[in-house]
Amino acid sequence: xxAVVDVIxxxxxxxxxxxxxxxxxxxxxxxxxxxxxxxxGKLGVEEPRNxxxx
Length: 54
What we know:
By secondary structure, the protein is an alpha+beta fold. It has 1 helix and 2 strands, in the order E-H-E. It has one helix at 21-27; strands at 8-13, 33-38. Strand 1, helix 1 and strand 2 form a beta-alpha-beta unit. It is elongated.
């Protein structure tokens, strides 16, 4: 007996200028649903000035 598995994909790029088509081409045929995300990995958090971790 084989288990049936639904595969969900995530296409992710870090800038609006990057193309997602190659990732979609690879995932669309094998995934039930593919989500797309265009977001930078850089956090907008500054380090505290009086940091004790240095």
